[in-house]
Design brief:
single chain; 218 residues; alpha/beta; Rossmann fold; two-stranded antiparallel ribbon; 51% helix; 14% strand; binds adenosine-5'-diphosphate
C-alpha cells in the first residue's frame, strides 16, 4: 500500500504518520525527518540541506528525489510506504509518478490534512521536541509532566529552528505557492481524500483509518 500525507506545516502530518504506520504496518518515510537526521550527522546531504531548511525554503528537487528513491529501495520488501512531506511541489509529484510507473506501483490514497492557517501558526509556535527520543510536546495542549523536560528522557526540550515565527511565515507561504497546487493535481487524478485536521489528533486518526480501510476493500 502506498499512501501520501499532504498538508501544510502544523497540520499534523508527522503525528498522524507515526500513529498510522504503527497501525497499518507501513514504513514511514518523512523527508523532513530524514533531512534533520542528515543535518545532525553532518553528512554531505545534511550540509547542503541545512541552509534551505533553516530559512523555510524547499531543498532542491534533485537532492530530495535521490534521497527518497534510495529510502524506498532500502524498504522495498515491506508492506508499503507512507510518504510524509513528499512530494512537495509539482515537479516532485511528476518525478514520483514516473518512478512508480517504471516499478508498476500505484498511489492508493493521498490524504490531505486541512486546517486553517491561524490554527497552524498556533500549533507551530507552541511546538517543542526532545532531541534524544524525538517525542513532541505542545504548549498549552500537550504539556510534559515537568516544565521544559521530556517525560521519557528527562532531556531539555528544544524548538525546531524552523519553528521561529519569521521562518514559520516563510514555510506557510512556500506551502501556499508550491505545495498547495498538489491538492488539485491529486484531486483531478481521483485519489485525494480531504480530512478536517482542525479536530483532536484521535479523531483525525480515526477518520484516516476509516478512509484507508475503504480503499483496501474497494
Ligand atoms: P513541515 O511540513 O512541518 O514544514 P518537514 O519536517 O516536513 O516540516 O520539513 C522541514 C523542512 O525540510 C522543509 O521546510 C524543507 O526545507 C525540507 N523538506 C522536507 N521535505 C522536502 C521536500 N519534499 N522537498 C524539499 N524540501 C523538503
Amino acid at each position: 500500500m502506498i499512501l501520501i500525507l499532504l498538508g501544510a506545516p502544523g497540520s499534523g502530518k508527522g503525528t498522524q504518520a507515526k500513529r498510522l504506520t504503527e497501525k497499518l504496518g507501513l514504513t514511514h518515510l518523512s523527508t523532513g525527518d530524514i533531512l534533520r537526521e542528515a543535518v545532525k550527522a553532518g553528512t554531505d546531504l545534511g550540509n547542503k540541506a541545512k541552509g534551505f531548511m533553516n530559512s523555510g525554503e524547499l531543498v532542491p528537487d534533485d537532492l530530495i528525489i535521490d534521497m527518497i528513491t534510495a529510502k524506498m529501495e532500502e524498504n522495498a520488501a515491506g508492506a508499503g510506504f507512507m510518504l510524509d512531506g513528499f512530494p512537495r511541489n509539482l515537479a516532485q509529484a511528476e518525478r514520483l509518478s514516473e518512478i512508480f510507473e517504471k516499478k508498476n506501483l500505484v498511489i492508493d490514497q493521498v490524504i490531505y490534512l486541512n486546517a486553517p492557517e491561524a490554527e497552524l501558526v498556533k500549533r507551530l509556535s507552541g511546538r517543542f521536541y526532545c532531541p534524544q527520543c524525538n517525542a513532541g510536546y505542545n504548549y498549552p495542549m500537550h504539556l510534559p509532566k515537568n516544565e521544559g523536560v521530556c517525560d521519557n528522557e528527562g532531556e531539555k526540550l528544544l524548538r525546531r529552528p524552523d519553528d521561529e515565527e519569521d521562518v514559520v511565515q516563510k514555510r506557510l507561504s512556500v506551502y501556499r505557492e508550491q505545495t498547495s497546487p498538489l491538492e488539485e493535481y491529486y484531486r483531478s487524478q481521483g485519489n485525494l481524500v480531504e480530512i478536517d485536521a482542525n479536530t483532536s489528533p484521535d479523531q483525525v486518526t480515526e477518520e484516516i483509518i476509516s478512509s484507508v480501510s475503504k480503499v483496501k476493500t474497494a
